[in-house]
Design a protein that fits this description.
With 129 residues, this protein is α+β, with helices and mostly antiparallel strands. It has three helices and five strands, in the order ββαββαβα. A three-stranded antiparallel sheet has the order 2-1-3. It starts with 6 loop residues before the first strand and ends with a helix.
């Protein structure tokens, strides 16, 4: 049995007026559970691609389709944080949004501190939740 793609984009393009083309004819497909990385130079369209995949940008050309029954989560590169929470509290809040929810694809562009290990932070969030 062939696995169904969870997310597909075909001939995706993103243009920012007056003359900035950051994505052109991008075609990608992902299987459920796939681990992906998006690499590229500054201004090459990494954030634009992830925002389109998360449904936060509809100013693109081409097709972008998430399989029904799945959801996409995006941790923004510069997220809007609750000023009443410290860094750990903000991280725990984000983790709690996905706990107990079947999320098919999680996207991230988070910059973690040099001395913080994501597993340690996730375990600490789980312990304090």
């Amino acid at each position: 049995m062939t696995a169904e793609f969870i997310y597909t984009c075909y001939k995706l393009g993103r243009f920012y007026p007056p003359d900035r083309q950051v994505l052109a004819d991008i075609s990608l497909s992902f299987y459920p559970g796939a681990k992906i990385g998006v690499l590229g130079a500054n201004g090459s369209g990494k954030s634009s691609l992830l925002k389109i995949m998360a449904g936060l940008d509809d100013g693109y050309s081409g097709e972008a389709r998430l399989t029904p029954g799945f959801s996409v989560g995006l941790l923004a590169q510069e997220p809007q944080l609750d000023p009443k929470k410290d860094a750990l509290g903000s991280l725990c809040f984000g983790v709690q949004l996905f706990v107990g929810r079947e999320s098919g694809l999680a996207l991230g562009l988070a910059g973690l501190g040099r001395h913080a290990h994501p597993l340690q932070l996730a375990l600490q969030c789980a312990a304090t939740s």
